[in-house]
Amino acid sequence: MENILMASEAYLSDRRCIWVNGPVIVGAGPSGLATAACLRDQGVPFVVVERSDCIASLWQKRTYDRLKLHLPKKFCQLPKMPFPDHYPEYPTKRQFIDYLESYANKFEIKPEFSKSVVSARFDETSGLWRVKTTTTAGEEMEYICRWLVVATGENAERVVPEIKGLKTEFDGEVVHACEYKSGEKYRGKRVLVVGCGNSGMEVSLDLANHNAIASMVVRSSVHVLPREIMGKSTFGISVMLMKWLPLWLVDKLLLILSWLVLGSLSKYGLKRPSIGPMELKSKTGKTPVLDIGALEKIKSGDVEIVPAIKRFSRCHVELVDGQKLHIDAVVLATGYRSNVPSWLQESEFFSKNGFPKSPFPNAWKGKSGLYAAGFTRKGLAGASADAVNIAQDIGNVWREETKRQKVRRNVGHRRCISVA
């Protein structure tokens, strides 16, 4: 009997159940922090659960050293707290992390770290969400709440493509861009960068700056724009133009201005899509590359553009055009994906790709108290807009119910006095 009691106590301690008098926010990245701050401002209690051991783990643990914000800081600040005045127009990785830590401290956001959500489902009987988490030590916890905010983001898991021979035959080092820190260790080596988005371009630039022999795989068309045009942010110009002009005309103007600054890029192996950069981003979420120096390396030959890969062998890569390149290492700048389908037991609001089915600006709210923050494909500005909307929506219900509870308590108190 004593052994059974001990086993029962151990089981109960491992499967604790907690009632949360407010929403549970899954994820302590910028989206989760912004939502928590806005809820704090509304006076709504909350719990933030985070699988890592720190806030903004993508920024702290899965980014390269030279990273800076690609957009001006005014487009990247979170609600209710601007960047410090002394920060540059494009804050560094370290400065952005410091800003997020100050943000969490200011709004007293204290996530419950090292807790991975293994499942979240809506209980129709009780009308509540049941969120189960586990730690690396195997401790299980279940949170019961009325509202669930999904803030795990668009970049929760790395995407690693299946390429013939890469895992089975190639002898060199293979890393994903999230593991890449600096080109210093690749000095003098032949490195193949797979992917030509912002990460692929910047990793290639960093490799060239460290005297590595860099090649970058460009399989399809890509929009490359200057980060600034005549001293003004290209993104800022596009935002301003979209207030007054149709999207197709904004794209036309951006491409003309980009051609004046960058020249024709097709002769370097960079072909533009038939759809304009802003329309493409609106339809597919594919972000145009904002050049911060990689094009200069491409034009000088320090970074070679190569076509798609056919297969890898022990120390070579064979390309679809028949070329064979000797390489020492591969960096997979092949992007990220949402991990929501792996744990959220719901299919009405979220699609199989882990993004809300409804397009912006209606992608932040589902049914039964389910919300999404940071899935708009509109960067930090989109995440901030989601956070404000979510907090206002929950706050309105919270305040109304709080008023009703006070009225019921007052009525009950008067009845007690009357009876007495």
Automatic annotation (TrEMBL):
Cofactor(s) the protein needs: FAD
Record GO terms (molecular function): flavin adenine dinucleotide binding; indole-3-pyruvate monooxygenase activity; monooxygenase activity; N,N-dimethylaniline monooxygenase activity; NADP binding
The organism's place on the tree of life at top rank: Eukaryota
Pathway the protein takes part in: Plant hormone metabolism; auxin biosynthesis
Family to which the UniProt record says this protein belongs: Belongs to the FMO family.
Name of this chain's protein: Flavin-containing monooxygenase
Keyword Magnesium: no
Gene Ontology BP term (one): auxin biosynthetic process
Keyword Flavoprotein: yes
Pfam families, A to Z: FMO-like (PF00743)
E.C. no: 1.-.-.-
Recorded coiled-coil stretches: none
Catalytic activity from the UniProt record: indole-3-pyruvate + NADPH + O2 + H(+) = (indol-3-yl)acetate + CO2 + NADP(+) + H2O
Keyword annotations from UniProtKB, A to Z: Auxin biosynthesis, FAD, Flavoprotein, Monooxygenase, NADP, Oxidoreductase
